[in-house]
Specification:
The structure is a single chain. The chain is an alpha/beta fold. The strands form 6 sheets. An 8-stranded mixed β-sheet has the order 19-18-16-14-13-12-27-28, with no helix packed on it. Helix 24 links the parallel strand 18 and strand 19. Helix 3 packs parallel to helix 12. It is globular. It starts with 48 loop residues before the first helix and ends with a strand.
């Protein structure tokens, strides 16, 4: 046996790495874990990869297949596989040459048997969706009384804009129906997976809530049994893993008929304790820390979630293999030393043997799965995390490919629905990248002089991004250019945040002050991660739009391959590397002078920009370098933020929200993102109430004053001035004959007309800038337009230069107001192929008949009005 080089050590000292060194420790190909040097590796064993991939594909296809087809596939594969296996010669077990010669037949038999097993498992799981009375009742939209067992944590839906309203908030829970009874029928015992949707916004006023004003449905734990009265409906899309949708109206306290299991109660107390320990932290760490530790994303705001998506840091918001890897690394010590006698970590420092460490690791794995919920995503994270850490800890990355293939095979057989999960695909691809590409890339960087730790981190981040980016592009139709640097910077904070967060989780039930202190320590790295995400998302060129299809994924993969091949050649030329890095930095940062010179956007001297935000309104009035007054925010925070970034707007003295429909206010978080805002001005008609409350919550959280606009108000900032021409001031309720101040006799003989809805209460403005006059009408309907044409400001509206057409160019316009305004240019903000038919052909024809040039965002994109002193120019983005 040959002695490997190593430091001289003494034989009479324990092999813990804590005392003086020992004599050389020998290693060979048969060396066990815990010796001084890792064993040597042979070629990568890929025999299990084809069966795992075949099982994966089979499960994905068979889930929707007819039972007869699935049964035929299982039978055929079993018969053929057994025939192939039986046909192996007995001598295949005697000599190495005979075994090698028989490998193709053995591999074919294994592949067929794995396909049969996957088809059987997928067929049985798919049959669960068609078995029993639930699917038939769902097709009839029957009202039933059902007993259900929850299988997931309740989660609140994110606000989604539909037209000018926000979809109602609902609580979503995965569950299994155990008993179902139709009205007037008998109860039937069954078991069918369903999605429970609790319509929280439809609950009556004064309903029962928990201590924080939330629906009590949000406090339920998995394995709880409930009795509900609800309406069944078919699954929303084909291919869902639920047999039906169970819609429940939130009437207050849910009827619990079975308490959750002991492990789930323990996990619930731990998770609740962590939330309580983080209550006193700043907003971002308070939201992020529970997500980093146990995947609790209930506090993550849509704005923060969008920042993590833009920088490809979303994996930190959910339970992933990285969490489990960090915990096991804390137990075993640095992975690079896990196979040495000098290994570190808690286990060797406490004198725990290798076998004891393995048992302790198993206990830790079980606890991790229980606390983070034993659903398939957590089981997947634990399995992939264990494989990745085992590969690093043993120094046998090549031999871990079979281990990864085994994990994939077992997980797909356990839960075939994982075969259709993008999360599962991303986990496997990322783990495979860490086992295959990352070591090669890290070694290449070290050969070129990159420090070892930096080379390993850069190789891992780049490899994972290269293989995962095409899949992410399919989901988001966008490619992040800042993902690698953001992940590198965040990587240093993930481990301390996770370890301190788990410590707070464990101590919260017994010592809350200690847990709060640990959470306070953890909030620094957690806040660092959030700042990285926000900073990366705020960069104008942080991402590029990409086709959101598998063809687009293939194109991105090809482009990545070209970049890798070119990059390998460039690494030998430092000056070329520096030049390429500078060009990439300029493309990401996009300094406004350079961007304007290259793209021509925004045009010099722009006065008004109508942003392209889809079916909604968002405009910016120039008020100085980097300063603009924003009128409406559109329906999507990301789109309006992108528009403001392209204009270089960082200071907003005033945000005017013409009315509270969602297509005008839902994008407000994007306007406020990273910008100094002086005030928000709104209409006095606060309907819809939920959107008015949404605006006030955002303003209060950032301490921005909110005021009400009324006709007659005049303001100025720099060369920009404007006058509010609608709505008129609200009359005192006890004065029926009141008329607005300065109103000529006969204009409003009794009182201004009460608005028929939010549209008629829109804030309308007459803007003056650089000799141009712009009339912005919000979403005014014909009754308010006619009243405006008879108001004291009517004379000032004649012959304007630019008209922002009311209500996205709908057919409901007052011809008299259009004739009085007689605009030279009419701008219409509307979404491409919108379902409302905006703009109406008749409205466009009437505007053109009056001599106006008509431009619209659905066809022309963002529109910029420039000029002055009567000169009018328009540029398109």
């Amino acid at each position: 046996m040959r002695s490997l080089p190593g430091p001289p050590v003494r034989q009479d000292e324990p092999a813990s790495g804590l005392g003086p060194t020992r004599s050389p420790v020998h290693a060979s190909s048969g060396t066990r874990l815990g010796t001084a040097r890792p064993r040597q590796e042979g070629p990568t064993d890929l025999r299990l990869v084809p069966p795992a991939l075949a099982a994966w594909a089979t499960a994905a296809l068979v889930l929707d297949a007819h039972p007869a087809w699935a049964f035929g596939l299982v039978t055929g594969c079993l018969v053929i596989g057994c025939l192939v296996a039986v046909g192996l010669p007995p001598s295949a077990r005697r000599t190495r040459r005979a075994r090698v010669a028989s490998w193709p037949r053995a591999s074919a038999a294994a592949l067929l048997l794995c396909v049969a097993a996957a088809a059987a498992s997928a067929g049985l799981h798919g049959a669960d969706l068609r078995r029993g009375p639930v699917p038939g009742l769902a097709r009839e939209y029957a009202t039933v009384t059902a007993e259900v067992e929850l299988s997931s944590d309740p989660r609140l839906t994110r606000p989604k804009v539909r037209g000018d309203h926000v979809a109602p908030t609902a609580v979503l829970i995965d569950a299994d129906v155990l008993r179902v009874q139709e009205a007037g029928g008998t109860a039937v015992t069954t078991r069918a997976p369903v999605l429970v949707i609790v319509d929280v916004d439809a609950a009556p006023p004064g309903r029962v809530t928990d201590g924080r004003g939330r629906s009590p449905w949000l406090g339920l734990l998995p394995s709880t049994r409930l009795r509900v009265s609800a309406r069944l409906a078919p699954a929303m899309t084909s291919g869902d893993r639920v047999a039906a949708v169970l819609r429940v109206r939130d009437q207050g306290e849910p009827e619990v008929v079975g308490e959750p299991s002991g492990p789930q109660r323990l996990a619930g107390r731990l998770r609740s304790g962590l939330r309580e320990a983080t209550d006193g932290l700043p907003a971002d760490p308070r939201a992020l820390l529970p997500g980093l530790v146990v995947g609790d994303t209930s506090r993550i705001t849509p704005e923060l979630e969008e920042a993590f998506k833009e920088t490809d840091l979303t994996h930190t918001l959910a339970v992933s293999g990285a969490n489990f890897t960090i915990l096991l690394a804390l137990l075993l010590g640095p992975p690079g030393l896990a196979q040495h006698v000098e290994r570190r970590g808690l286990a060797p420092r406490l004198g725990i043997s290798l076998r004891g460490t393995a048992v302790l690791g198993g206990v830790l794995s079980l606890g991790f799965v229980i606390v983070c919920r034993p659903d398939p995503s957590v089981v997947r994270a634990a399995a992939c995390g264990a494989v990745a850490l085992l590969a690093l800890a043993t120094g046998r990355r090549r031999s871990m490919i079979p281990a990864l293939a085994t994990a994939v095979l077992l997980l797909v057989l356990y839960d075939p629905w994982l075969a259709r999960s993008y999360g599962f695909l991303l986990s496997v691809v990322a783990t495979g990248a860490l086992l295959t590409l990352a070591p090669r890339w890290s070694a290449g960087l070290r050969r070129r002089g990159v420090p070892p730790r930096l080379a390993e981190a850069l190789g891992a981040a780049a490899a994972a991004q290269a293989l995962c980016a095409p899949i992410v592009a399919v989901l988001s139709a966008r490619v992040s250019l800042v993902a690698v640097p953001c992940n590198l910077l965040a990587e240093f904070a993930i481990a301390p945040a996770t370890v301190l967060g788990f410590a707070a989780l464990a101590t919260a039930p017994v010592a809350m002050p200690v847990a709060e202190a640990l959470a306070w320590c953890a909030h620094w790295p957690a806040g660092w991660i959030a700042r990285i995400a926000r900073a990366g998302a705020a960069l104008p060129g942080g991402g590029v739009d990409w086709p959101g299809s598998w063809a687009g994924a293939a194109l991105l993969l090809a482009a990545t391959l070209v970049v890798v091949l070119v990059g390998r050649r460039l690494l030998g030329h430092p000056w070329w590397c520096a030049a390429c890095g500078l060009l990439l930095a300029l493309a990401v940062v996009q300094p406004p002078p350079l961007t304007r010179a290259v793209t021509g956007w925004p045009p010099p001297g722009w006065r008004l920009v109508m942003c392209d935000v889809g079916q909604g309104d968002a405009m910016v009035l120039a008020a100085g370098e980097g300063t603009g007054v924003v009128v409406d925010a559109g329906p999507d925070p990301q789109l309006v933020d992108r528009c403001l970034r392209s204009l270089g707007i960082s200071r907003i003295p005033l945000v005017v929200l013409t009315h509270f429909h969602a297509d005008h206010v839902a994008g407000l978080p994007g306007v406020l993102r990273g910008r100094a805002v002086g005030a928000i001005e709104t209409t006095g008609f606060e309907e819809p109430a939920d959107q008015a409350a949404f605006v006030r919550r955002l303003a209060a959280a950032r301490r921005i004053p909110v005021t009400r606009a009324a006709a007659g108000e005049q303001r100025r900032t720099g060369e920009l001035s404007w006058q509010v021409v609608w709505p008129p001031p609200s009359p005192p309720p006890d004065s029926p004959s009141w008329t607005p101040p300065g109103t000529p006799p006969g204009v409003f003989p009794v009182r201004p007309p009460a608005p028929e809805g939010p549209n008629d209460a829109s804030v309308a403005m007459l803007v003056r800038t650089a000799g141009l006059r712009l009339l912005l009408l919000g979403d005014l309907e014909p009754p308010a337009q006619r009243a405006l044409a008879r108001s004291p400001a009517a004379e000032a509206l004649e012959g304007v230069d630019v008209l922002k057409v009311a209500h996205h160019g709908s057919a409901y316009q007052d011809p008299g107001l259009i004739r009085r305004a007689a605009p030279r240019l009419a701008l219409i903000s509307c979404g491409e192929d919108n379902s409302y038919g905006h703009p109406a052909p008749g409205t466009v024809a009437a505007l053109r008949a009056g001599g106006a040039a008509v431009l619209r965002t659905d066809r022309d994109g963002a529109l910029a009005v420039a000029g002055g002193g009567g000169e009018l120019r328009v540029a398109r983005d």
